[in-house]
């Protein structure tokens, strides 16, 4: 199998602490600029080093021309730009694309920036014209009229099908939220830091059967940036570089109804490719950084990435301590469920936490040993999947 | 809302018939489209489905998933596996949410929502 040769590395990160309401000075393009400044500072790099740019869609400006807007505003020249459109997997997808471009010699140092801070409202109105329910959208025509709108219902459908095929208790799902909250309590940047137990999760209102409020991410605002560079340049980074030694991606559908299987998801193909490329065993992983829009997402991801067998995730989370003190550290930042999900930047938090742990800067929640991290991003309705294996050297 | 490609499906539901597409290689297709997702053939014909299927999964929306459905809660969103093969998104009706079971047999019923649009829902078979 071809693939990455592990010659591109993460050398710097920046992340705004997520907030429930936008209350920042940094909006829109200003947020991109501040994130770029902070991430380059973390790397010990300057603005002149940047020659690649990966980002999500701009919130406004008609959503178009993101590379033009950003290179102009940041004053950079990009040899390779990409607008990554993978929903929750956008962060992981951006880092994977940066690594590919750097290994191919298309650019040497890429900024990956994702943010959700709203731009000031245009007093004249306007804004994005595309809506999912627009004419010619299959979801708009064949899902929305039945009330199948948003994300919650889709993950609930998956949870019910999974329970039907393999058995799963509400308590097993709740354990995921509880352990992640324990991690968040050790993370000053996390939005949700009050202790919760399994009863708290199960006593929170059911939003869509069987999912309770505390099993569902709350939308937040924030942003994150990651600097990826070549092996040669990585040697002069401030902190230990985290080489991207494996990557895998798989997309099969948009609407959950057409997911080839609700219980063996496209995650599997992405993760298998990443592990094979990296030449790393599951048991070599020191930290699992797994996308967690819902508790059920984590359970399926644990199985399909191969950390446990099919149908065993419920038992796995019962038998393992998933906190930073535990035998299977997972989402030590608190996961999006407790750290907060800042839109597309939510998926980037799994990468920023990986880099903090790999460079020994995770504070109270720092793992004793962290050299190899598995990151997984999931976008859409269990739709767009990106896996990364990172190695600190 | 229908496009020129999907119009025959909605013409069908208006006549209380559930229509699927079949490609020249025999793949059964839902939702309606121009090319078969099994082989990308663009030679597709319309065939009438049995209207029977099995519940693949479901959820009960306790809160509206959009303001449009404020008055419908609680309602049962379903993914139905049609006997012809494809899955479709729908709603379950004429059933107590607590009595819904994955794997239950279903049959299509039609709800004339407007003059143009009739939605296919499903209910437990043989009721
Ligand atoms: Zn075909």
Automatic annotation (TrEMBL), chain A:
Span of domain Thiolase C-terminal: 248-390
InterPro entries: Thiolase (IPR002155), Thiolase-like (IPR016039), Thiolase_C_2 (IPR055140)
Protein name: Thiolase family protein
Annotated CDD domains: SCP-x_thiolase
A Pfam family the protein falls into: Thiolase_C_1
